[in-house]
Amino acid sequence: MASPSDPEFLASHGMSTSPHFIDLPQFEGRKPTIGVCAMDSKARSKAMTNILNRLHATNRYTVVFFTEKTILDEDIEKWPLCDFLISFFSTGFPLEKALQYTRLRKPFSVNSLVRQFLLFDRRIVLEMLGHAGVPTPRHLVVSRDGGPQVHPLLQRVVEQRMGLTLGQSCSGGP
């Protein structure tokens, strides 16, 4: 099994091998396209509009919005092509479908879709914070559903990068 520090492992999981954290692709004679894949309330929010206006003002990028109809109703093969993808979960957003798109088209993900699965369950968030030594307020975890459900890809990445098996300290006990 490849090590998380092995460049081939990192590249196969969409992670950078650059000592400067990210490797940006080269675009010969064309403007790279930034795809915004989120529900309209997030994609067209004041904060996102501000960010995208600043990027647009540089005249170095083209921005394309994935409409809610596209995200919800179209097959991922029909989604717009982009070089960079900004995508984030909100109510009604098909995160798994967006992840399938990134596997198919391989845009540079500005924010990790896989890691967004972490935010679905605060027990996982607390477990990772504790493992990383981040102080959290005193809390009590009550698990009435058999413990958190962890996306398999996320489970592998967290185990390999952090040495943490998610869900074990949250699953309750005798």
Order of helices and strands: HEHHEHEHEHHH
- What strand order characterises the main sheet? 2-1-3-4
- Report the mean per-residue pLDDT as an integer: 82
Largest sheet: 4 strands, parallel
Q: Which residues sit in consecutive blocks of at least 5 with pLDDT less than 50?
A: none
How many strands appear in the DSSP assignment?
Answer: 4
Distance from first to last alpha carbon: 34 Å
The percent range for helix content is: 25-40%
Shape: elongated
Helix and strand content put the structural class at alpha/beta
Q: Beta-sheet strand percentage? A: 5-15%
What is the radius of gyration computed over CA atoms, rounded to a whole number of angstroms?
18 Å
Question: Helical stretch count?
Answer: 8
Outline:
The chain is of the alpha/beta class and 174 residues long. The protein is 37% helix and 9% strand. It contains 8 helices and 4 strands; from the N terminus they run αβααβαβαβααα.
Structural descriptors:
174 residues; alpha/beta; four-stranded parallel beta sheet; 4 strands; 37% helix
Give an overview in words:
With 174 residues, the chain is α/β, with parallel strands linked by helices. It is elongated and about 50 Å long. The chain is built from eight helices and four strands. A four-stranded parallel β-sheet has the order 2-1-3-4. It comes from Kickxella alabastrina.
Protein topology:
Layout: H1 7-12, E1 33-37, H2 40-43, H3 46-57, E2 62-66, H4 68-73, E3 84-87, H5 95-105, E4 108-109, H6 113-116, H7 122-131, H8 152-162
Parallel strand pairs: 1-2, 1-3, 3-4
